[in-house]
Give the backbone structure.
Amino acid sequence: MKTRLLMSLSALFMAVLGLLASFLPQEILAYCQVSVQGPLVMLLQAAGALYLGFAILNWMARASLIGGIYGKPVALGNFLHFAVMCMVFLKALANGQATALTLAGALFYTLFALWFGLVVFTSPSEVGRAPH
């Protein structure tokens, strides 16, 4: 399975989220109508740093065989992240929080969770892999 596109798109998605959370935490909290306080701002910035770390991991690994013995940890880490966040967004939708942001989050996280699930639970293929 070709994973270069998956790794590139997930890196871009997480980089955008990471940059927003790192540099606009007060604005995000205000948009969500949450009281802007020090600990929440720092927590959102820490989440942004995690997203940026995952983004660079995916970007650097995009040409590697993902899902094989050496790429399995990258695939599993991504699958776990996207699957858990998919459940978070679907639970929010089930609880009546159907905003445009929640719907978009549910859509993107579900697509990435399914795609990474396919990578994790199928055999990797060298066919079509980009050369190093």
The radius of gyration is 16 Å.
